[in-house]
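User: Run a structure prediction on this.
Assistant: Running it now.
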Amino acid sequence: MNLASIPHYTSLANALVSLFGTSVKITRTDRLSGGDINKAYALTLTTGDRIFMKANAKENAAFFTAEAACLSAIAETGAIGTPHLLCTGTDDGEEVGYSFLLMNFIESGKKRADYFETFARELATMHKADTKSFLPLESAENAGTKQFGFFQNNFIGARPQDNTPTADWISFFRDRRLLPQFKAADRYFSDSDRRQNTKLLDHLDNFLTEPEKPSLLHGDLWDGNVLANNEGKAILIDSAAYVGHAEADLAMTELFGGFPPSFYAAYKEAHKMQAGYEDRRDLYNLYHLLNHLNMFGASYLTPVQSIVAEYVG
C-alpha cells in the first residue's frame, strides 16, 4: 500500500498554506471533548473551511502516521465512510513541540431510519474486500503465504500493536495479539493464572477457526469509534486496522454494549458467518480486555480471568 498521497509537514502553518493557500489563517480554535490519548480541536479558517485536528507530543507522531494508514486502508475498500485525510505533521511550537493529524470535520447528524442496517451492510462489504494491498509485498517464493497482519505496525489505544504477517489466523491471534498482552500484564497474574493463560495459548486451535477468507478489520470497533454524519450515515474513526478474521471486529462491537439486533441481522444477511461465532466471541474480546488491563489497571483483571476460565476451566 502506498501512503505517498498523505502529505507530512514540518509545521502546522506550512500544512495550512499548502492545503488552503498562502493567505489562510486560523480564526477560531475549539477544544473538543472525548479521547483519552490525544487532544482534539475544531479549527475554523479564513477560507470558511472547518477542519479537525488531533494533537499529541512530538515524539508520538507515529500515532498519527499509523492512524492515517489505517483510515486510508479502510477508504481504499470503498465500502464505508471515513474522514477525508488532509495530512500528518509535527510542529516545534512556541513553547513545546507537538505532532498532529488533520482531517475534514465531520458534521454530526441524526441517524437515518436504516442507519444500523446500512452500517452493517457496509461493514460486511469492507470485510469482503480484497486484502492483498494491505500486506507487505512478498518475495516471489513466498507470495500469497502471509495472509494476516498489516503492512506496518500500529496502535491499539496507546499501546503498540504488532502486525507482522503470519500465514494462518490462529497463529496470528496467539502470537501477535494475546501473547504480547499476557506478557505485558504478567505482574497482575498469580502462578495459577499463568498456568491457565499458558494452557489457553497452547490450545487456542481448539477454540478458534480459520476464516474462509481474510478481512480488513477496523480493529477497535465499538460505538465510540463510529460517528453519524450529517447525512445520517456511519463514519469510522480511530482505527487500529489489520487483516484478520471478520469475527474479531463483530465481537468488539458487542464488548461495550453493542448495537441493536437489526445491525447483527443485517450483517449476517450480507456476510455469511461460520457456525459457532458466539462460542468464540469472548476469546476475541479477551485481547481488548487485556489491553485495557495494561492501560488502565487491575479493574480489568477479573473479566480477563473469567474469560480464560471460560475456555480452559
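The two ends are 43 Å apart (CA to CA).
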